């Protein structure tokens, strides 16, 4: 991204109309074909008064459309609250966000400062010594190391060398490859400039000499095992996950096109609410997130329930919660109600909650069959700490 590029600013779900000459037909087609998931595109027509109409579909960040046009997808959530959501959703508390991050005025500034924070942490770990794993090697040696390969010895008696299988410590393990790949993706984003860019670039060059650069998926940052020697990697991998999930489609190291930085706000809100509930679980309750229920063996249908609350003593499910970021006009839609009732019925519980980021004009509290369905709100406009104080207790109260 360059300073000369024109930046079109879109806010979540708010249509933006542009004169027909603002985009070329080729640019409009590229936006529609490649990025229609992120931005709904309506071409100039009588319906749009012969203008382009672009609508962000609940994603925030930046899209590099062409050398002359970029799209800035802005959140409807205050930036300070957005940063807090990211912090909680990705478990970034151990990084102790600095005041510089919360003074950022744009997503680009936030991205750059967060990247620098990651680079500093990785550099500190490199100076202290990177975590070493072990790789297994097989070789014929003039001495015994590790285990002797007896089968090879018996079939082909050695002359002056002994076939051995042994382990050797290396920093070129997955723990460190995640860090290197994340730094590479950050450099490709174009959001770090000047001293920030040079700091990240120098660190990347240093690590690239001893660690293999290979694509890493965000999922490798989750459910990893840590020990006393690499416990600090837990926070680093959580931060890497944020960058990898926000970097667009997976690309190989030789590719030259990418989505610079995109966050799915619906997914972020879902993860934020779930993390908040886990941290504030009511006494006597336990929580399971993204619980999958499989049914219809022939067709392989699956339910993925955002949150299920269980009675800790009996183990019985008490309630299901489904998080909805896109807010209906006044009350829950029929499809939202049907979905959460199906979840509750499948789990055999009597309470179901729909969670929205705003107070609905007509809150819902009715029985649908044997299931009582209620709406809850976790607003994102005020102080999130204050807003969330009573939320888990309400949800857990059944």
What does this protein look like?
This protein is α+β, with helices and mostly antiparallel strands and 398 residues long. It folds into 3 domains: 6-74, no CATH class; 79-130 and 172-263, no CATH class; 280-396, Trna Endonuclease, Chain: A, domain 1, CATH 3.40.1350. Helix content is 34%, strand content 26%. It contains 12 helices and 16 strands. It has helices spanning 25-35, 79-89, 99-102, 107-128, 150-155, 174-189, 194-208, 233-245, 265-279, 334-347, 384-387, 391-396; strands at 6-11, 16-19, 39-42, 51-56, 59-64, 69-74, 133-141, 147-148, 162-170, 261-264, 285-295, 301-311, 317-323, 351-356, 365-368, 371-377. The strands form 4 sheets. A 6-stranded mixed sheet has the order 11-12-13-14-16-15, sandwiched between helices. It has a 4-stranded mixed sheet with strand order 1-6-5-10. A 3-stranded antiparallel sheet has the order 2-4-3, covered by helices on one side. Strand 3 and strand 4 (51-56) form a beta hairpin. The radius of gyration is 26 Å and the shape is globular. The protein starts with 5 loop residues before the first strand and ends with a helix.
List the helices and strands and how they pair.
Elements: E1 6-11, E2 16-19, H1 25-35, E3 39-42, E4 51-56, E5 59-64, E6 69-74, H2 79-89, H3 99-102, H4 107-128, E7 133-141, E8 147-148, H5 150-155, E9 162-170, H6 174-189, H7 194-208, H8 233-245, E10 261-264, H9 265-279, E11 285-295, E12 301-311, E13 317-323, H10 334-347, E14 351-356, E15 365-368, E16 371-377, H11 384-387, H12 391-396
Helix pairs in contact: 2-9, 4-7, 4-8, 6-7, 6-8
């Amino acid at each position: 991204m360059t300073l000369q590029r024109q930046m079109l600013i879109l806010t979540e779900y708010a249509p933006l109309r542009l004169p027909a000459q603002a985009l070329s037909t080729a640019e409009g087609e590229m936006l529609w074909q490649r990025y229609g998931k992120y931005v709904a595109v309506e071409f100039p027509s009588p319906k749009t008064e012969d203008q382009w109409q672009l609508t962000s579909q609940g994603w925030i960040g930046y899209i590099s459309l062409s050398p002359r046009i970029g799209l800035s997808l802005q959140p409807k959530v205050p930036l300070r609250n957005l940063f807090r959501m990211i912090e909680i959703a990705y478990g970034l508390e151990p990084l102790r966000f600095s005041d510089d991050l919360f003074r950022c005025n744009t997503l680009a500034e936030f991205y750059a400062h967060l990247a620098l924070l990651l680079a500093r942490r990785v550099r500190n770990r490199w100076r202290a010594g990177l975590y070493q794993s072990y790789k297994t090697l097989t070789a014929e040696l003039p001495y015994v190391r590790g285990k002797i390969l007896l089968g090879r010895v018996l079939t082909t008696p050695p002359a002056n060398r002994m076939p051995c299988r042994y382990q050797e410590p290396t920093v070129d393990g997955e723990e460190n490859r995640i860090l290197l790949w994340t730094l590479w993706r950050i450099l490709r984003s174009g959001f770090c400039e000047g001293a920030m860019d040079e700091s990240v670039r120098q660190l990347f060059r240093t690590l690239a000499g001893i660690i293999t650069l290979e694509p890493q998926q965000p999922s490798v940052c989750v459910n990893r095992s840590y020990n006393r020697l690499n416990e600090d990697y837990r926070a680093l991998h959580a931060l890497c996950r944020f960058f990898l999930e926000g970097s667009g489609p997976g690309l190989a190291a030789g590719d030259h096109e990418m989505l610079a930085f995109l966050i799915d706000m619906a997914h972020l809100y879902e993860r934020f609410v779930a993390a908040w509930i886990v941290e504030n679980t009511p006494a006597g309750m336990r929580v399971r997130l993204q619980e999958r229920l499989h049914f219809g063996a022939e067709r392989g249908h699956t339910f993925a329930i955002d949150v299920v609350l269980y009675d800790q003593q009996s183990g019985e499910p008490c309630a299901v919660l489904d998080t909805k970021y896109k807010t209906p006009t006044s009350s829950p839609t029929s499809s939202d109600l049907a979905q959460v009732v199906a979840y509750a019925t499948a789990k055999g519980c009597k309470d179901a909650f729909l969670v929205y980021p705003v107070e609905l004009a007509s809150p819902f509290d009715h029985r649908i069959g044997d299931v009582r369905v209620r709406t809850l709100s976790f607003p994102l406009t005020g102080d999130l700490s204050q807003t969330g104080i009573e939320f888990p207790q309400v949800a857990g109260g059944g």
